[in-house]
Amino acid sequence: MADGLAPGRWERRFAKTNLPGMSFPPAGALRAVTKTYDRGAAAVTALDGVTLAFAAQSFTAIMGPSGSGKSTLVQLAAGLDTPTAGDVELAGVRLNDLDETARTELRREHVGFVFQSFNLLPTLTVAQNVGLPLKLAGRTPDKRRVEHALERVGLAGRRRHRPHQLSGGERQRVAIARALITEPAITFADEPTGALDLNVAHSVMELLSEAVETVVMVTHDPVAASYAERVVFLADGRVVDELHAPTAEQVAEHLTGLVAA
């Protein structure tokens, strides 16, 4: 178990996902997915036949050297891009069958996002930022629902503040509350601790792992990855290794080996 993990977290998660005689459909999946980009006379293969599933109520970290295909994998898994070949499933729906409008609606209803740069609108209050996904989906944000999301991330007293009045850690907590507001089937996090110092990053990772049901996170940080139940390593657009319930040291050793190779 990684240093700093809350006691009993693994037991709580596995109790939900490994009930005897029960199985859950994946929150997201890629099946034999290839993504090729045409760049002039040359074609670049960012993903090469990747098959990967993300179990409901699980936490998966995606790691690999620069250019290994991490960002492409998440963009495809989240329905932000389309594969050259293969199938992508999200929240039980085959994305290949949907046009861009339908994919956008699916993301609004079932997908949460947490970014390194927070992506909060500076002119809106904390509460308005949290309720924004509901408003974009054509629904009136319920004040009680927004309050509950802010309570879950420990920011109930900051609802009238603007982003510039918050610390970096508080801004990321707002971003997590915003991801929670639609009760997504899956949340994608892109380097969520990249702009935070070590102590703040620790508290954000604790919150992300405890409050969000299903997480797929891209990170270069072995300590952040150690909060995941599974770490998937990519190299040259392919899945090359996995670790389960890893320590930060194990993650760092694997990543160093991939970079050296």
For this entry, give a set of tags.
single chain, 261 residues, alpha/beta, Rossmann fold, six-stranded mixed sheet, four-stranded antiparallel sheet, 9 helices, globular, disordered N terminus
Count of discrete domains: 1
- List the helices and strands in order: HEEEHEEHEHHHEHEHEEH
Strand content: 15-25%
What structural class do you assign from the helix and strand content? alpha/beta
The beta-strand count equals 10
Protein described:
- The chain is of the alpha/beta class and 261 residues long.
- The chain has nine helices and ten strands.
- The strands form two sheets. The chain has a six-stranded mixed β-sheet with strand order 6-7-8-3-9-10, sandwiched between helices.
- A hairpin with a 2-residue loop joins strand 4 and strand 5 (93-94).
In short:
The chain has 261 residues and is an alpha/beta fold. The protein has helices at 9-17, 70-77, 100-110, 126-136, 143-152, 168-180, 198-211, 222-225, 248-260; strands at residues 28-39, 42-54, 59-63, 85-90, 93-94, 111-115, 186-190, 215-218, 230-235, 238-244.
Give a topology summary:
Blueprint (H helix, E strand, L loop, with lengths): L8 H9 L10 E12 L2 E13 L4 E5 L6 H8 L7 E6 L2 E2 L5 H11 E5 L10 H11 L6 H10 L15 H13 L5 E5 L7 H14 L3 E4 L3 H4 L4 E6 L2 E7 L3 H13 L1
Parallel strand pairs: 3-8, 3-9, 6-7, 7-8
Antiparallel strand pairs: 1-2, 1-4, 4-5, 9-10
Helix pairs in contact: 4-6, 5-6, 6-7
